[in-house]
Design a protein that fits this description.
The complex is a heterodimer of chains A (224) and B (88).
Chain A lengths: L11 H5 L4 E5 L2 E6 L4 H8 E4 L5 E5 L3 H7 L11 E3 L5 E6 L2 E5 L6 H7 L9 E3 L4 E6 L3 H8 L13 E5 L2 E10 L2 E8 L1 H17 L3 E3 L5 H4 L4
Parallel strand pairs in A: 3-13
Antiparallel strand pairs in A: 1-2, 3-9, 4-7, 4-8, 5-6, 6-7, 9-12, 10-11, 11-12
Chain B lengths: L2 E4 L3 E4 L3 E6 L11 H9 L7 E8 L4 E8 L4 E6 L9
Antiparallel strand pairs in B: 1-2, 3-4, 4-5, 5-6
The chains are: A alpha+beta (224), B mainly beta (88).
Chain lengths: 224, 88
């Protein structure tokens, strides 16, 4: 693990206890592998920290038009998502609000951050430091059945749902990874450690557990 | 499980919401008498009936209005502020 990373995951100290194999992604230490059983755990109920993915919020009346001018496919409906180049995603969180998240090797967010916002446009950048978790495996729905009031297994793939999981507010994005559902979750970083602990324990009870980013790397690199 | 229909997010468990109090008009501070202002600040109507109330969907940060019968706890409809015609 680097001595002085530019960014840290809100659950890094919990990952540290598992002594994972570390790598650095977008300036943040990321647990690449937890142990030899990552794949088996991920197939059942795997919990992965992907907080290293860069995020950016954009708000304002002109946000949608400006993003389209930058060559992005802008989702038309609230809570719809679209793919960015190289595995990132863009989600419309409101009529005038968007969230962008990079993929592993995707420079979309830094590239957008570098573009100056023209004067006179109603457009504001919002710093987003959400934690990103990914819940995968055939028992992922069972994890939500214990922690969430919604039937997460019936949510549409590619549409964000804001709800509470284990008492913590979060956004959930159902996705397909190797033809199986997995769930990307965005959480306020101040609650991330608590939610991580709850989910990790439940995943463990279901035969899974914490897994490294390598298990799901493909889905964030635009090739999955 | 009790549910409440958020105008943006749809039916959700009540645990996802916070109650924000009855919808009340703020008197003009420059024109209101002391009695009117004190009534606004300190007094609430607890009589049973259909109330317009503020509710907040915590997970998405959505404030909206619910018309609720506080005697039967029946939610009649919900809508965003300024969209009274919307069905809930």
């Amino acid at each position: 693990m680097p001595d002085s990373p530019a960014r840290r995951s809100p659950v890094q100290h919990q990952l540290d206890e598992l002594q994972p194999e570390w790598t650095t992604i977008s300036g943040m230490p990321a647990a690449l592998r937890i142990g030899p059983h990552d794949e088996e755990r991920a197939a059942l109920a795997g919990l992965c920290d992907a907080s290293c993915l860069r995020k950016l919020g954009l708000k304002g009346r002109d946000a949608g038009a400006w993003l389209a001018e930058q060559g992005m496919t802008v989702p038309a409906d609230i809570y719809a998502t679209a793919s960015l180049a190289s595995g990132g995603i863009i989600a419309r969180l409101g009529t005038e609000e968007f969230l962008l998240e990079s993929g592993i090797a995707d420079e979309s967010v830094p590239a957008i951050e570098a573009v100056p916002i023209p004067a006179g446009r109603n457009l504001f950048r919002i710093e987003r430091q959400d934690a990103t978790f990914v819940l995968c495996g055939i028992r992922a729905d069972a994890v939500f059945a214990q922690t969430c009031g919604l039937d997460v297994g019936k949510m549409d793939v590619g549409r964000v749902v804001f709800t509470r999981v284990a008492g913590v507010s979060c956004g959930i994005l159902p996705e397909l990874f190797e033809d199986r559902r997995c769930y990307r979750m965005w959480i306020d970083p101040s609650y991330a450690a608590s939610l991580w602990q709850s989910l990790a324990e439940i995943c463990g009870d279901l035969g899974g557990g914490v897994v490294g980013l390598q298990c799901i790397l493909q889905s964030f690199s635009g090739t999955g | 499980m009790k549910t409440l229909n958020c105008p943006i997010n749809g039916p959700r468990p009540l645990q996802e919401f916070h109650f924000g109090g009855e919808v009340r008009e703020v008197p003009d501070p420059a024109r209101a008498t002391d009695a009117q202002w004190a009534d606004y600040v300190f007094n609430r109507s607890g009589e049973p009936g259909i109330k317009r109330e503020w509710w907040y969907h915590v997970a998405s940060g959505t404030w909206f209005i619910a018309e609720r019968n506080n005697q039967t706890d029946e939610i009649l409809r919900t809508y965003l502020y300024g969209a009274e015609a919307a069905d809930g």
